[in-house]
Each structure stands twice: as structure tokens, then as C-alpha cells.
Design brief:
Distance between the termini: 67 Å
Strand content: 15-25%
Oligomer: single chain
Largest sheet: 9 strands, mixed
Helix content: 25-40%
Structural class: alpha/beta
Number of domains: 2
CATH superfamily of the largest domain: Alpha/Beta hydrolase fold, catalytic domain
Radius of gyration: 20 Å
Number of helices: 9
CATH class of the largest domain: Alpha Beta
Strand order of the largest sheet: 1-2-3-5-4-6-7-8-9
Order of helices and strands: HHEEEEHHEHEHEHEHEH
Length: about 300
């Protein structure tokens, strides 16, 4: 064997070692091992994104039976801070997840690129405050949400339509961006405290570029015909009532299908309404009624 071939082989082996070895190089999309015993068949999945080599880590839970079941995709928030993103775990949202599971939905919770163990590039970067690109950031989030929808609706236990896209904070903003694409698979979007640029410089009620946020909401609303539900709280420190209502009015005024609810204050920060047990009795009846109208 020539010295050149030996050198090339050594380089390949070193690359595999840095990546964690051949096992990591051979990771394949789909379920990673059998589901957990007990209710809802909890399981880790790896979900591909078209055109990218990265695989999103995701938790998938589903009711017993063969289905096919409707799908709810629950999408996490984000941060411009890379250290915070690196520490993010695969989202759980146990209250909202259980709410959908009890109503016969498959639930998938993807961890998008640039976050936690999924790693890879951060496609959702909004850039500097003075030129914040909320449009591009939202569409990048929507792309990852759409990848999760496409992968799961290809499974035999999931319906091809009747998808509900749910998002919190940046995940809610991405779900609104998804609505602007009018996917035939998506029957509804639920936006929990959605937006970008909140708590700029770690200060409450200090948005990075609120006028851009409102203008981008109008851009999404111009083409969005998927029904959207907007849920915010009076004591949301990221998106105060005047801002959340301004986004909604811009979205709806541009032609978007939207329903807005400002919930009473609760806890230390109403931005976390999707995760709070105290908030669930406030939003659950609203979501129930909203989805009942989408049957």
C-alpha cells in the first residue's frame, strides 16, 4: 500500500474519531431504539432536514393503537446567546403534550438546528438589533417545523393532514411564518407568546426592534390563510400587551386568519404560559374551542 493511501486512511480514521467514531457517522433518521414502556410510547427520533446533513433530535409520543392519528408539532423558543442555545435540551412541554395526547394526537417535539444536542449551524439568527431580520429568522424556524411535519406525516401511524403546529416564543413566531406558506397538511397554528427580539439586553419589556416585528407580522399575514390562535399574557416580559396586540392587528389587517386572546397575569412571567400548570386552565378551553371549529 502506498504512503499516499496510508496517509489518506489515517486522515479518514482521525476524522471519524473526532466525530465520535463510526457509530456516529452511521446514525440514520427515524426512531432510535424501541419506545419506552408505559403510556404514550415515548421515543427518541432523528429527523432530517432537506438539503442539510444535520439530523434534529426529537421526542415522539403517541396514543396506543395503529392510527393513523392527527399530529401536533410543539416547537421551542430560542436565544441569540449561543451558550444558552447549547444548553437547551430536547423540549418536553408536559402539560401541552399531555393535552394533545389525551385528545388522540401524535406529539413530536423537535430540537431545531443550532440548539443543544442537535447542534449544527444556527439558521434562525436574526442578526443585529438595528437591522434585525425577523422575516428570515421566522422562515428558518418554519423550515425546521416543516421538516418535522413532512417526516412524521410520512409515517403510517400519522395522518397526512390535520396537523396542528404549536410554538412558544421563537417557536410561535416560526409557526406563524409556517402559516404564511399555507401547507395543505396544516389545519391550524397555535402561537403561545410568539415573537423575536424580546428582553433585549436582558431587560424586561425591551424589544430589540418592535417596529420591525410588527411589520414582519404583516408580511406573514399577507399570505397566511391557515387559521391561527394567538395566546399572550398581561405580564409577559418579552412581548407586552401593546406589542403582542400590535403584531396580531398587523397580521390580521394584512389578511391573515387570526384569533387573539390576552390572558390574565400569572406567575413571575406570563411568557411561560405553555409550561405553567397555573396557566393551563386559562388556555385549554380556548384551544379546545378553536380546534373544534377546525374539524
Amino acid at each position: 500500500m502506498s504512503r499516499a493511501i496510508l496517509a489518506l486512511l489515517a486522515c479518514v480514521l482521525a476524522t471519524l474519531a473526532r466525530a465520535g467514531g463510526p457509530a456516529d457517522a452511521q446514525q440514520m433518521p427515524g426512531p432510535q431504539g424501541p419506545p419506552e414502556a408505559g403510556g404514550f410510547h415515548r421515543q427518541l427520533w432523528l429527523i432530517p432536514i432537506p438539503g442539510e446533513t444535520i439530523l434534529m433530535r426529537a421526542t415522539v409520543m403517541r396514543p396506543s393503537g395503529s392510527g393513523p392519528f392527527p399530529l401536533a408539532v410543539l416547537n421551542h423558543g430560542s436565544s441569540q446567546n449561543s451558550e444558552r442555545r447549547a444548553k437547551l435540551s430536547v423540549p418536553d412541554y408536559p402539560i401541552a403534550s399531555r393535552w394533545f395526547l389525551d385528545r388522540g394526537y401524535v406529539v413530536v417535539l423537535p430540537l431545531r438546528p443550532g440548539h443543544g444536542e442537535t447542534g449544527g449551524p444556527y439558521f434562525e439568527d436574526q442578526g443585529r438589533c438595528d437591522g434585525a431580520d425577523y422575516h428570515g429568522a421566522g422562515l428558518a424556524t418554519a423550515r425546521s417545523i416543516r421538516a418535522a411535519i413532512d417526516d412524521m406525516t410520512a409515517q403510517p401511524f400519522v395522518r397526512k393532514t390535520d396537523v396542528v403546529a404549536v410554538g412558544q416564543s421563537a417557536g410561535g413566531w416560526g409557526a406563524l411564518a409556517l402559516a404564511s406558506g399555507n401547507s395543505q397538511a396544516v389545519k391550524a397554528v397555535i402561537n403561545f407568546a410568539g415573537g423575536r427580539g424580546g428582553r433585549s439586553d436582558s431587560k424586561p419589556n425591551n424589544n430589540c426592534s418592535p417596529e420591525r416585528l410588527v411589520a414582519t407580522a404583516a408580511e406573514f399575514g399577507h399570505s397566511a390563510r391557515v387559521p391561527t390562535l394567538w395566546l399572550y399574557s398581561e405580564n409577559d416580559s418579552f412581548f407586552a400587551p401593546a406589542l403582542s396586540k400590535g403584531m396580531y392587528e398587523a397580521f390580521r389587517g394584512a389578511g391573515g386568519s387570526a384569533e387573539y386572546h390576552l390572558l390574565p397575569p400569572f406567575g413571575a412571567d406570563g411568557h411561560d404560559l405553555i409550561e405553567s400548570g397555573d396557566a393551563a386552565p386559562l388556555w385549554a378551553p380556548i384551544v379546545d374551542k378553536f380546534l373544534a371549529g377546525r374539524q
